[in-house]
Amino acid sequence: MAVEEASYVVISQDKPFEIREYAPHVIAETLVEGNMENVSNKAFMKLFRYISGSNVSRSKVAMTAPVSQQSIGEKIPMTAPVAQQRVDEKWLVSFTMPKSSTLSTLPQPEDASITLRQVPAQRMAVVRYSGMWSEKNYLNHELELVAWMKKMGLTPTGNAVWARYNPPFTPWFLRRNEVMIPVHS
Known about the structure:
Multidrug-efflux Transporter 1 Regulator Bmrr, Chain A
């Protein structure tokens, strides 16, 4: 089943790395505590209930990709559609809303821990990989991306984001995962 993805343009490519320019978009996000691998299910279910009609107007919102997770530091940078980051075992997990959505047209969440936020256009350095959703895989690919960025003279402007595009029943070798780091335009 095809799922809408966040809009971006590839500015440059050096397989498996890319520089992408993301269009402005709206996200629904929630902050959860726990380790990297366990927070995903907890946050996913909260956000899934929201798009399934657990909102003020009981409206359904189409599922999109990716699901993002990002750890929270001193400052929360604007994030890509689906990401994961960690600081002190707190993670910001988000769903990208459909392209036609705006803050004024989306239903308000009933769950006070879910917020809707407009993300401005941003440039991201990205590495794409397949495999299991594990902290080890994420950290290995984050290190590769950081090394490539250093080689290319790119300066990060925020924390790394973990983006996942497939449902959990997708075989590990077919999964699309990405590590994304915001960079100067």
